[in-house]
C-alpha cells in the first residue's frame, strides 16, 4: 500500500508540512532530499514495493543509505527483520542507532524479565520444540510457572510414553523434552502441559474434531489445539501471577475451529493487564492472535 494516506496525520503530529516522495530511490528522490530545508521532513514511499527490500540486497540498501547522513531505527516491532531498510543500510551509514521508543521497549523488557514482579509465568507455544529450545531454557532460569501449548506438546507427551496418534512429533528431540522437564523440576519451576486436547482427523479447517484427554489420542488423529479443561487450568494458574510472557500460539489458530485455546489465552492476558499484571507478548503468531481477538490495545 502507498504511504500517501499517512501524510496528513504525520504532518499533524509533527506540526509541520511533511512532503512525500513517489519513490524511495532514484534521481527524483535525490533532488527532493537535496532541496530539503533544515528541520523539514520527507516521507519516502513504501519500501515494500521493491522486492530487494525483504531480500536485503546490498545495492538497494546502499542507494537508500545514500539519501541520509545517519540512521535511527525506532521501529522496535520490526527491528529483528534483516531487511534493506532496517539492517542493510547500517552497513553504509555511521552512526546507525536505536531510537527513544526502542530504548523504552528494551528497558521495559529488561526490567520485566531480569527483575520481574512475582509470581512470573511464561507461556510458550508453537509447533516445534527445536525452534523454542533457547526460549524455554532461558525462561527456566527466571520463571516460576511454565505453561506449554502448541504442536510442541506432542513431543513432550511422546517423551513421557503417551500415544500421540498422527500429531506432530520431533523424534530427534524426545530426549531433549525429557531433559527440559527434569530441569524444570530441578529448578522448582511448575510446568503445566495441557490435560486435554482438541484433535482432528486431518490438517484442515473443515476437519472432524473432538476433545479427548491428552493420554487418549487415538491412532490416525492429530492434536491441533488445547482443550477446555486445559484452558481453565492455565487461566487459574495465570490468575496467581504478577508478570506473564507469552510466545507462540496454543494451536493451529489460523483455522477457526482450532483457535479457541489461543484466543482464550489472549483474552485472559487482556483481562490480567487491566488488573495491573505486567503482560508481554512476543512472536508474530501471538501478536496476530491478540489482534484477531481485538485486544491488542488493552
Automatic annotation (TrEMBL):
Catalytic activity: (2R)-3-phosphoglycerate + ATP = (2R)-3-phospho-glyceroyl phosphate + ADP
Gene assigned in the entry: Pgk1
Keyword Kinase carried by entry: yes
Names of required cofactors: Mg(2+)
Pathway(s): Carbohydrate biosynthesis; Calvin cycle
Single GO BP term: gluconeogenesis
Record GO terms (molecular function): ADP binding; ATP binding; phosphoglycerate kinase activity
UniProt entry keywords in alphabetical sequence: ATP-binding, Kinase, Magnesium, Nucleotide-binding, Transferase
Name under which the protein is recorded: Phosphoglycerate kinase
Family listed: Belongs to the phosphoglycerate kinase family.
Species this protein is from: Agropyron cristatum
Subunit field text: Monomer.
Its EC number(s): 2.7.2.3
One of the record's GO cellular component terms: cytosol
Amino acid at each position: 500500500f502507498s504511504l500517501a494516506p499517512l501524510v496528513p496525520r504525520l504532518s499533524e503530529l509533527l506540526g509541520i508540512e511533511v512532503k512525500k516522495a513517489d519513490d524511495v530511490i532514484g534521481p527524483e528522490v535525490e533532488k527532493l532530499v537535496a532541496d530539503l530545508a533544515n528541520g523539514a521532513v520527507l516521507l519516502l514511499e513504501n519500501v515494500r514495493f521493491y522486492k530487494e527490500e525483504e531480500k536485503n540486497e546490498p545495492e538497494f540498501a546502499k542507494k537508500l543509505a545514500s539519501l541520509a547522513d545517519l540512521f535511527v531505527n525506532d521501529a522496535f516491532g520490526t527491528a529483528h527483520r534483516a531487511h534493506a531498510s532496517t539492517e542493510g543500510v547500517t552497513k553504509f551509514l555511521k552512526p546507525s542507532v536505536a531510537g527513544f521508543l526502542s530504548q523504552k521497549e528494551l528497558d521495559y523488557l529488561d526490567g520485566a524479565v531480569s527483575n520481574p514482579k512475582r509470581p512470573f509465568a511464561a507461556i510458550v507455544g508453537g509447533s516445534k520444540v527445536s525452534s523454542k529450545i533457547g526460549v524455554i531454557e532461558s525462561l527456566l532460569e527466571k520463571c516460576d510457572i511454565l505453561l506449554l501449548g502448541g504442536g510442541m506438546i506432542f513431543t513432550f507427551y511422546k517423551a513421557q510414553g503417551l500415544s500421540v496418534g498422527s500429531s506432530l512429533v520431533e523424534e530427534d528431540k524426545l530426549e531433549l523434552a525429557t531433559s527440559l522437564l527434569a530441569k524444570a523440576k530441578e529448578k522448582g519451576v511448575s510446568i503445566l502441559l495441557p490435560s486435554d486436547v482438541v484433535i482432528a482427523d486431518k490438517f484442515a479447517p473443515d476437519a472432524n474434531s473432538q476433545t479427548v484427554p491428552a493420554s487418549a489420542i487415538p491412532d490416525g488423529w492429530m492434536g491441533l489445539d488445547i482443550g477446555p479443561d486445559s484452558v481453565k487450568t492455565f487461566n487459574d494458574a495465570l490468575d496467581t501471577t504478577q508478570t506473564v510472557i507469552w510466545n507462540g500460539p496454543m494451536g493451529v489458530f489460523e483455522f477457526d475451529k482450532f483457535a479457541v485455546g489461543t484466543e482464550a489465552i489472549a483474552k485472559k492476558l487482556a483481562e490480567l493487564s487491566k488488573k495491573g499484571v505486567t503482560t508481554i507478548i512476543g512472536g508474530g503468531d501471538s501478536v496476530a492472535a491478540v489482534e484477531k481477538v481485538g485486544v491488542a490495545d488493552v
